[in-house]
Amino acid sequence: MAARHRSGFGIVGLIYVVIGVFIAWDHGYIDAELARRIASALLAIFLWFLILLGVDLHIST
Quick one: pLDDT at residue 27? Predict the structure, then answer.
């Protein structure tokens, strides 16, 4: 039988990142403005074709 090698992030990695983001937010390393800028950047990266069509992906308050 061939051994199965599972590469990827997994649930433990996801939990690790979520806890890390919470701790960084709690200690002031991440604030609402930074979170909005990161969210806008991620939207622009994953939905770049909408930007070419003239859609504004900036998240504002």
Answer: 95
